[in-house]
Amino acid sequence: MTVIDLPPPPVHPFPVPPPVSPLPDAARARPSRISRRSRRGQRGITTAEYAVGTAAGAGLAGLLYKLLTGGFGDRMLRTLFEHVLGLLGVG
Questions:
Q1: Could you give the percent of the chain with pLDDT greater than 90?
Q2: Of 3, 52, 79, 87, which shows the fewest CB atoms inside 10 Å?
């Protein structure tokens, strides 16, 4: 077996300083158990907000469906199309 002698790695001509964090030591410290608990509690609020938004969207969709499939929706769409066609000079 042949052993290859490698030259030593080159020395950098200028010393490179270690990386410095822009945050103070307190901000880099590990979060306490209390702050982790409060963040964990916030996740449920976001889920609840999504649930309320989804329920509100479904309610609005149901209301629009009822309005547009009844006689009122038919008259409203017909009036809207007649108005647009009148503005364009077609109707």
A1: 22
A2: 3
Single-letter amino acid, residue 79: T
List of residues 6+ apart from 26 with CB closer than 8 A = none
63 burial level (CB within 10 Å; 0-12, 13-18, 19+): exposed
Residue with tokens 């409203």: 76
Radius of gyration of the chain (CA): 34
pTM confidence score: 0.40
**Predicted confidence (pLDDT) per residue in 32-71, tens digit:** 665 555 556 556 667 888 899 999 999 999 998 888 888 8
